[in-house]
């Protein structure tokens, strides 16, 4: 490149990077939205741990923001620390900003088999390791780490269905219907199993139709499950009552025979009576054996019931809505029962201590054995009393939400993960820790919509703040400031556009950006047609890029937010860089500006730049077609000029 040409090119790039958003049309052909090229970036390949090689290619294209994108846990783990260090040096040398995309693992702990806390902790460990690698990429701090908000389906929306039954639903529930899923998945909070709940119109015997929304099915499922739990306990209580009744009948029969024997003994004919009626002695023995077996069974049932009642109470307190739990905890019957149960537990403790003394003896006397039997009998009486008291609470226990919508459950669990990894990173790196930038996933997944993502971020920040206040002794104001700095959102405009396949309109999709605006730390720019996440360059699909960017511009720190152009699908199919196509959409003046900047110095190369010389294209066309016909091309000799002759023999 000529000296003057190089200077003009550098001056042109610098001017481009100084350009801000243009708020008005300059002419009828140009859109009014423009991004500074220094805000744009590209992800590296997701297919290999050799991220450093791909980074070199992107830097050679002049891209100033790079996103390391090993989204498979195994590939991410395979990136050598030496490569991370070398990428850091490359970024520093070229004044490039680097972000990192974490592996796509569900942060809540969901897998295809359901939910498990162990899976959540495993995800937390994976993300924590990635966060450390991210910090190593830029030790000046605050490297955005993109984490998908979810990787499990939570609900399938249907605007058409909502509109069809809107009036009936509003009439039934007495309130305005917002958004209603056609299918909602719920999770058993104890077992982690997932249950699909689908919208259904049921035919009644009377001939009428009854609408069962997923929410109604969820309420019914929780109530039915709780009723079954209580019925199971009540059935055991009835069984105990029946056994006690049988026990009393057996005792009465045995006592009747014993009374006859006593009378015979008093009159001195006991021996003759036994000889004449030997079956009576055998009957007494059988009755006593049956009575003893029933007593053992009752004790077993009481022990099992005690455990089940404790479990029932735990479910009620753990999974019921907070308001109902608070009312239950203030219930007078609970207060009295708790007082009595505490006394029973103290009595149990005393008996256990006495048992312990007996077990320490090398040899038990007859007196000791008798005492052992007495202690055991007292224990059984206390257990019976305990079960009786606890069972009285069944009627006043609140109905817990044993099954919860996957989306709600995911917000709670994922926020634990985000708060924990942010806190661990802060303990290690302070305010230079990477930013946890939670990405909205596909619309059918949790945390995909603005409201859910915002809720998860708020919860994560609250938990992070509590940790800072408790463990670091920070003031609440300082902790909140740090939380807002280190936990936010990555807004993927292509993902939110997939709401179109569920019947959402463009204005509703644009509105989502407004709702999450204050929480955005990072942006993924990509395009599609609302059906699949095909990753086209911006401008090649129907994502409302213009309106979304206009909304993003309202942020005070907009010029600091990196916009990563995710167009891997385009590269895969067309084997070419998506960056120029993105520039045409996001900065439509760039070609005209390059012409104006370079024309005085570039001469022959003016117009399309050194890499696309306009004069050459006019003479010879493009590609191999530009070769002379004698060499298999299509270009003929020009009518005039220095190449007008000499090729034809």
What would you note in describing this structure?
By secondary structure, the protein is an alpha/beta fold. Among the domains are: 20-153 and 418-586, Divalent-metal-dependent TIM barrel enzymes (TIM Barrel, Alpha-Beta Barrel); 620-649, no CATH class. 55% of the residues lie in helices and 11% in strands. It has 23 helices and 16 strands. The strands form 4 sheets. The protein has an 8-stranded parallel barrel, surrounded by 6 helices. Strands 7, 8, 9 and 12 form a 4-stranded antiparallel beta sheet that branches. It has a two-stranded antiparallel ribbon with strand order 4-5. Helix 9 crosses helix 10 (278-319), helix 12 packs antiparallel against helix 13 and helix 14 packs across helix 15. The protein is elongated and about 125 Å long.
Q: Output the CATH topology of one domain.
A: TIM Barrel
Low-confidence stretches: 18-32, 594-612, 619-627, 637-649
Spatial strand arrangement across the major sheet: 1-2-3-6-13-14-15-16
Within CATH, the superfamily of one domain carries the name Divalent-metal-dependent TIM barrel enzymes
CATH level-1 class of one domain: Alpha Beta
Profile the largest sheet. Answer: 8 strands, parallel, barrel
Mean pLDDT: 84
| Termini Cα gap | 35 Å
**Which range best describes the helical content: under 10%, 10-25%, 25-40%, 40-55%, 55-70% or over 70%?**
55-70%
| CATH architecture classification name of one domain | Alpha-Beta Barrel
Shape: elongated
The percentage of residues in β strands lies in 5-15%
Radius of gyration: 38 Å
Kindly state the number of beta strands.
16
Question: Number of helical segments?
Answer: 23
Secondary-structure class: alpha/beta
């Amino acid at each position: 490149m000529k000296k003057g040409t190089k200077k003009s090119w550098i001056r042109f790039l610098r001017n481009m990077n100084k350009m801000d958003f243009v708020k008005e049309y300059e002419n009828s052909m140009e859109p009014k939205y423009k991004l500074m090229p220094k805000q744009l970036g590209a992800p590296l390949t997701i297919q290999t741990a050799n991220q450093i090689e791909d980074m070199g290619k992107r830097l050679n294209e002049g891209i100033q923001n790079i996103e390391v994108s090993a989204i498979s846990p195994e590939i991410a783990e395979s990136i050598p620390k030496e490569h991370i260090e070398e990428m850091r040096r490359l970024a520093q040398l070229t004044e490039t900003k680097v972000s990192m995309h974490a592996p796509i693992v569900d942060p809540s702990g969901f897998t295809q088999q359901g939910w498990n806390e162990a899976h959540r902790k495993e995800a937390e460990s994976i993300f924590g390791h990635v966060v450390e690698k991210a910090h190593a990429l830029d030790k000046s701090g605050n490297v955005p780490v993109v984490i998908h908000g979810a990787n499990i389906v939570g609900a399938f929306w249907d605007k058409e269905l909502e509109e069809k039954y809107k009036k009936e639903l509003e009439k039934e529930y007495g309130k305005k219907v917002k958004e209603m899923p056609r299918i909602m998945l719920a999770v058993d909070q104890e077992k982690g199993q997932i249950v699909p709940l689908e919208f259904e119109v049921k035919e009644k015997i009377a001939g009428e139709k009854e609408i069962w929304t997923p929410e109604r099915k969820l309420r019914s499922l929780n109530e039915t499950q709780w009723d079954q739990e209580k019925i199971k306990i009540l059935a055991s209580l009835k069984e105990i009552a029946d056994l006690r009744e049988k026990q009393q009948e057996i005792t009465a029969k045995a006592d009747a025979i014993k009374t006859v024997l006593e009378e015979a003994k008093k009159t001195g004919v006991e021996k003759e009576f036994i000889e004449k009626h030997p079956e009576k002695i055998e009957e007494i023995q059988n009755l006593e054996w049956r009575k003893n077996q029933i007593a053992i069974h009752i004790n077993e049932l009481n022990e099992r019931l005690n455990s089940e009642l404790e479990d029932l109470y735990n479910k009620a307190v753990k999974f019921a809505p907070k308001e109902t739990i608070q009312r239950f905890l203030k219930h007078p019957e609970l207060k009295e029962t708790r007082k009595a149960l505490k006394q029973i537990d103290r009595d149990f403790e005393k008996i256990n201590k006495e048992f312990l003394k007996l077990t320490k003896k090398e040899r038990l006397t007859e007196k000791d054995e008798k005492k052992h039997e007495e202690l055991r009998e007292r224990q059984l009486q206390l257990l019976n009393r305990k079960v009786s008291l606890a069972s009285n609470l069944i009627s006043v226990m609140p109905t817990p939400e044993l099954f919860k919508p996957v989306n709600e459950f995911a917000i709670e669990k994922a926020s634990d993960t985000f708060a924990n990894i942010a806190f661990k990173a802060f303990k290690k790196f302070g305010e230079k820790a990477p930013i946890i930038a939670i990405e909205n996933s596909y619309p059918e997944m949790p945390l995909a919509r603005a409201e859910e993502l915002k809720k998860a971020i708020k919860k994560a920040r609250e938990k992070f703040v509590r940790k800072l206040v408790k463990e670091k002794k920070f003031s609440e104001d300082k902790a909140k400031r740090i939380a807002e700095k280190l936990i936010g959102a990555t807004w993927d405009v292509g993902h939110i556009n997939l709401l179109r396949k569920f019947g959402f309109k463009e204005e509703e999709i644009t509105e989502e950006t407004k709702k999450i605006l204050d929480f955005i730390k990072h942006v993924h720019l990509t395009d599609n047609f609302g059906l699949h996440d095909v990753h086209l360059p911006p401008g090649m699909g129907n994502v409302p890029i213009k309106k979304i960017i206009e909304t993003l511009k309202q942020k005070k720190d907009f010029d600091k937010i990196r916009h990563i152009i995710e167009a891997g699908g385009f590269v895969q199919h067309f084997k070419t860089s998506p960056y120029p196509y993105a520039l045409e959409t996001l900065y439509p003046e760039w070609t005209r500006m390059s012409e104006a900047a370079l024309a005085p110095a570039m001469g022959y190369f003016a117009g399309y730049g050194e890499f696309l010389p306009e004069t050459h294209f006019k003479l010879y066309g493009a590609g191999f077609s530009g070769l002379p016909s004698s060499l298999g091309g299509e270009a003929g000799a020009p009518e005039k000029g220095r190449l007008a002759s000499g090729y034809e023999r």
